[in-house]
Write a structure and sequence with these properties.
The complex is a heterodimer of chains A (about 290) and B (about 325).
Chain A (H helix, E strand, L loop, with lengths): L1 H32 L6 H19 L7 H21 L4 H24 L4 E2 L3 H4 L1 E4 L2 E4 H23 L1 H11 L1 H6 L4 H26 L1 E2 L4 H15 L4 H21 L5 H15 L13
Helix pairs in contact in A: 1-6, 1-9, 1-10, 1-11, 2-3, 2-4, 2-9, 2-10, 3-9, 6-7, 6-9, 7-9, 10-11, 10-12, 11-12
Chain B lengths: L11 H19 L4 H25 L8 H18 L4 H17 L9 H21 L1 H4 L13 E2 L2 E2 L3 H24 L1 H11 L1 H6 L4 H27 L4 H4 L3 H13 L5 H21 L5 H14 L3 H11 L11
Antiparallel strand pairs in B: 1-2
Helix pairs in contact in B: 2-7, 2-10, 2-12, 2-13, 3-4, 3-5, 3-10, 3-12, 4-10, 7-8, 12-13, 12-14, 12-15
Classes of the chains: A mainly alpha (about 290), B mainly alpha (about 325).
Chain lengths: ~290, ~325
């Protein structure tokens, strides 16, 4: 029993690291533009299907799909940004509806092109089991975990140290003032959306290598990302990382101790509990109340 | 309560529109369009009611809901279960379904403290919970296998409501009643306060309006309406399963219907629902059998970008436009 729990925690941490990538993409775009991209999960899903194409059509390792996924998803993210940027009236509300519509279009486009079957990697290299002590993992999971850690570190460095990163944070905290300091907010917002797209591309390929995808799951990724941001509170990458691990571990434990049908429910319950009792998230200090 | 008593007297154009709409509404019965067409119209009116409840929350409450399927499904299951298990008459069960949907919305109230986009995401997450619960609580709901032995609509005053004509008239009347309630609220001092909240929530709070409570009431009312239409739909079709009753399309369709028709008006969501539903069933489905929602998504995206106030706003803008001037743009 104890081994099972330990194994569940371990698997949860591995998958949670990828949830962190999805959540960071959502958060970066939101931070710069105060706009939640409801199609973010579908962008992740699209990247996963790019990996499926590269593996299925060309027989390559799914990770070889990264350039393709980056090009497709980042340009799509840019298109979404351009569309959202056109909205003038009731920006917050209409941008939600617009990105929701983009999500519907993407989900059904994926359904039309790739059919509704469940897809996952068939690469023996990635599916190979390796053991660390008593714990087991697929090689794909370990690779995804390492990629997530590296990307998160890079993003943290970029936001904290680089000029661009500082500009993103400046625009995020006060758009007008940042503009007066010689930062072009529009350019920063574009950058943030491109970064969000890049994170979605990596997250999608990672999810394809360690899990299964089908057209309907796009918006569950968005929901998971949102739960993570609620858990984390706003504004800290380590917070998002811990929140994502917590979600991954909770889901894995639910599957091990109860049933896989309750997996989604566990995340929701966690989310509601935090919302009721810790409205600023587990790690966040900044108020999110309206 | 020093506010001016609400006036319910409709203006002239509204009277004309109302009479015209009534004539259009009874036309399918008078000209006997047949059972298939009437069935389509009943479904489109269910969607119209759901769209109206969504628009009420969006327009009066200033909240976008991506989870109305939760209220719709809860209403459907509650009504079907109390009429089947407790033997309550359907006439009682349907409003009870609405009440239970309202109750389910109470657990959502903490999310009202969240600012706009966070509320939208919270309700998106929330809608999932009920589908899973309905699937897992198989001993009560019949689980994934579904629920089919529950009473259909009764016969009242000689009119068999379970017939196509009866269902049509019933759903139509309920839509009309809720539209009336919507208009009454919008014109009351509550409606004025809600409009003020939409302009500036902080300023409204400062003058002593409990904005959170008003928004909460709008959420509960919207959930009630959605639940009632879920219940009506359940008794019309006579079969429920979690993936259907809580299906994402019950969250998606009212948004498209309301935005297409114009969610800041009362008639917009109703007419939008009929148009969108018929387009989906008769055009989109025959063009693309699987994945036909892609066309609806395109319609929604185009509407938000080109005419965010819907067909109603577009037409209204054309009428209001002063000669040679620019159309009035709300800020």
């Amino acid at each position: 029993m104890f081994e099972l729990v330990l194994q569940a925690v371990f698997s949860g941490v591995l998958v949670g690291s990828v949830y962190a990538l999805v959540a960071l993409g959502l958060a970066v775009a939101f931070g710069a533009m105060r706009i939640i991209n409801l199609a973010h999960g579908e962008l992740v899903l699209l990247a996963a299907y790019m990996a499926y194409v590269v593996e299925g059509r060309f027989g390559l390792n799914p990770w070889a799909a990264i350039p393709l996924a980056l090009v497709v998803v980042v340009s799509l993210s840019w298109v979404i940004f351009k569309a959202v940027d056109r909205i003038r009236e009731h920006r917050e509300l209409n941008s939600l509806i617009l990105t929701f519509a983009v999500g519907i279009v993407l989900t059904n486009a994926i359904l039309l092109i790739f059919a509704s079957d469940v897809r996952s990697t068939s690469s023996p290299t990635l599916q190979d089991a390796i053991s660390i002590g008593d714990l087991f993992a697929m090689k794909g999971e370990i690779v995804a975990f390492c990629v997530s850690l590296v990307l998160m570190g890079a993003l943290w460095w970029w936001l904290k140290k680089s000029w661009y990163g500082r500009a993103v944070r400046a625009v995020s905290s006060n758009r007008e003032a940042a503009g007066l300091m010689g930062i072009d907010p529009a350019r920063i917002e574009t950058t943030a959306f491109l970064i969000a797209g890049a994170l979605a591309a990596f997250a999608g390929v990672a999810l394809y290598t360690m899990s299964v995808v089908q057209p309907a799951v796009g918006h569950t990724f968005t929901v998971k990302a949102f739960i993570v941001t609620v858990l984390a509170g706003v504004g800290s990458i380590p917070g998002v990382f811990l929140g994502a691990l917590l979600l991954g571990v909770t889901e894995a434990l639910t599957v091990t101790l109860a049933s896989s049908a309750l997996q989604e429910l566990a995340g929701m319950v966690l989310f509601l509990l935090v919302l009721f009792f810790l409205p600023n998230g587990l790690f966040g200090a900044r108020a999110r109340r309206g | 309560m020093s506010a001016k008593p609400a006036s319910f007297r409709p203006t002239m154009p509204e009277t004309i529109a109302g009479v015209a709409l009534l004539l259009v509404a009874v036309a399918p019965i008078v000209f006997d369009v047949g059972n298939y067409a009437l069935g389509l119209l009943v479904s489109s009116l269910v969607l119209a009611g759901l769209g109206l409840s969504w628009a009420l929350l969006g327009n009066l409450g200033g909240m976008v809901s991506f989870g109305h399927a939760a209220f719709f499904g809860v209403g459907a299951y509650a009504s079907a279960l109390v009429s089947a298990r407790l033997g309550l008459p359907v006439v009682v069960a349907v409003p009870l379904g609405g009440l239970v949907a309202s109750l389910s919305a109470i657990t959502m109230l903490p999310t009202l403290r969240l600012s706009g986009p966070y509320f939208a995401l919270a309700i998106l997450a929330y809608a999932q919970i009920f589908r899973i619960l309905a699937t897992e609580a198989a001993s009560i709901t019949g689980g994934a296998g579904g629920l089919q032995r529950y009473p259909s609509l009764p016969t009242i005053l000689g009119l068999d409501l379970s017939s196509r004509t009866g269902s049509y008239l019933l759903v139509l009347s309920v839509v009309a009643v809720f539209a009336g309630v919507y208009v009454a609220i919008r014109r009351s001092h509550v409606g004025i306060a809600l409009r003020a909240i939409a302009e500036s929530e902080v300023a409204t709070r400062v003058v002593g309006v409990d904005s959170l409570r008003l928004k909460a009431w709008m959420l509960l009312l919207s959930a009630f309406m959605a639940g009632v239409f879920g219940a009506l739909n359940a008794h019309v079709i006579g079969f429920l399963e979690p993936d259907y009753a809580f299906g994402g399309s019950w969250s998606m369709m009212p948004i498209i219907a309301a935005v297409f028709g114009g969610y800041r008006t009362v008639l917009g969501p109703i007419c939008g629902a009929v148009a969108i539903y018929l387009f989906d069933q008769l055009v989109a489905k025959s063009l693309i059998p699987v994945g036909h929602e892609i066309l609806l998504g395109v319609v929604l995206a185009v509407m938000v970008l080109i005419a965010p106030n819907g067909i109603a706003g577009f037409v209204g803008g054309l009428l209001d436009r002063p000669k040679g001037g620019r159309p009035h743009v709300a800020t």
